[in-house]
Amino acid sequence: RLLIGKLLQLLKMFKIGRPLVLLLLMQLTSLSSSLSISTKITDSPYLHATFDYSAANEYIETHYGQKSYFTKEQTKLCEPVYNARNFYDSKDKRDPPLLEKFGFDLFQLPMKTNWNDLESIQRDYLPELELTLRRIFEEEEGQVLEDVIFWHPMWRNNNKITENRVPLSSSPPLARTSPPAPMVHIDNDVGAYEFEDFLSLLKANSVSTKSVNWEKVGRALLLENKRFVIVNAWRNIHHTDTVQQAPLALYCPQYHSKNDCFPRAKPQQNKSSWYLFPDMTPDEVLLFKQYDRRIDRISDIWHCALTQYQIAENTKSKTSIKQSDRQSLDIRALCIFKDTVSDELNRYHDKRPRAKLSLEESECFCTEQAKERLL
Question: Which residues touch 309 (CB under 8 Å, ≥6 apart)?
């Protein structure tokens, strides 16, 4: 409608003068460019999937007293999922940079290592992943990272299940494994607790091989208001196959205002969308934000494994209900920037919403919640 309106204006004013026509053409080109980005969201869905919001709603109500964060009546909804690979052109260029606009992006990062051995991952993978994160934030946002700390690796494979919180201080480190998580969730609710609790969580779960100056980290985040972002790096660790079962879906939340965020504001469900990168190869790594201190930058990317879905191109095809034996690894990265965050953009302030539960109580709650839904 906006394009038609602009064209009508152009026709009416054509006789007024060439400069004005040229100006309108420039405006029309700019408008067309902006619409070309947004219309990709309205492309035909790649598939339809059933999403279970019950765990997310239960978590938010228990921790913040807010009922029906996602849905009011049903906790399971069949929703469209869009192919995020459509954001790339034939030259593999991103239009726009997805990590900045949508909170996630896919990158090529070929790697040969023993994915079942943490020491090999620390030696081979983490240095390359850190270089990738530094390059991405510098290229897309012009921001320089001061430090990167990796923590909480999780192997996901249906055939191996251990408790989620195996001490990594054991020698050799024990791999924490879990089945793919089909419930809608986020990995970290960073703002819910005091900074000391967050710092202790980082220390207990850090797998960075380099020496970490925790006093410097505390000073940067608590006293200097440095910007920090938590990124989940998710990849397929199967030696040859692409991800065919239980692929990872990502929810891009859109709020009423750019200064709204979880948990104080609910996403606009009619404007928020689910995305998927089909057939992820062993050479790709998927990065998505779990927290960004800057309130004007999208983060808090909810996600889940898809276990019940239908490919949209053939709605009569068989629905997948089989739990996958996919092999994947996800690891979290705390990215600390050199830049500080102004008071008006800082969501990690003293008056941010706090959880009703302590960190220890919350861990017990989440563990029991997961066990109930996996049985």
Answer: 47, 48, 49, 50, 81, 319, 320
Judge whether 95 and 106 are in contact, CB under 8 Å. Answer: no
**Pair of tokens at residue 51:** 């999403």
Cis peptide before 96 (omega within 30 of 0): yes
How far, CA to CA in Å, does 362 sit from each of 15, 53, 196, 224?
Answer: 68, 18, 15, 28
- List the one residue out of 271, 326, 253, 269 whose CA is nearest residue 102: 253
At 151, phi and psi to the nearest 5? -155, 160
Cα–Cα nearest to 222, from 249, 245, 202 = 202
Cα distances (Å, whole numbers) of residue 1 to 150, 253, 270: 47, 25, 19
Residue type, 127: P
Q: At what angle do helices 54-64 and 359-374 cross, to 10 degrees?
A: 160
Answer positive or negative: Cα dihedral of 82, 83, 84, 86.
negative
Structure tokens at 308: 């019940």
Quote the DSSP letter at residue 158: T
pLDDT (tens digit, 0 to 9) for every residue of the chain, 375 residues total?
334 344 444 444 444 454 444 444 344 333 333 333 343 454 789 999 999 999 999 999 999 999 999 987 778 999 999 999 988 765 555 556 688 889 999 999 999 999 989 999 999 999 999 999 999 999 888 899 999 999 999 998 866 544 443 343 443 344 577 888 899 999 989 999 999 999 999 999 999 988 999 999 999 999 999 999 999 999 999 888 899 889 999 999 999 988 899 999 999 988 999 999 999 999 999 999 999 999 999 999 999 999 877 775 544 444 444 444 789 999 999 999 999 999 999 999 999 999 999 999 999 998 888 888 765
Element (H, E) at 363: helix 359-374
Q: Could you count the other beta carbons within 10 Å of the beta carbon of residue 265?
A: 14
Nearest Cα to 107, choosing from 95, 126, 92? 92
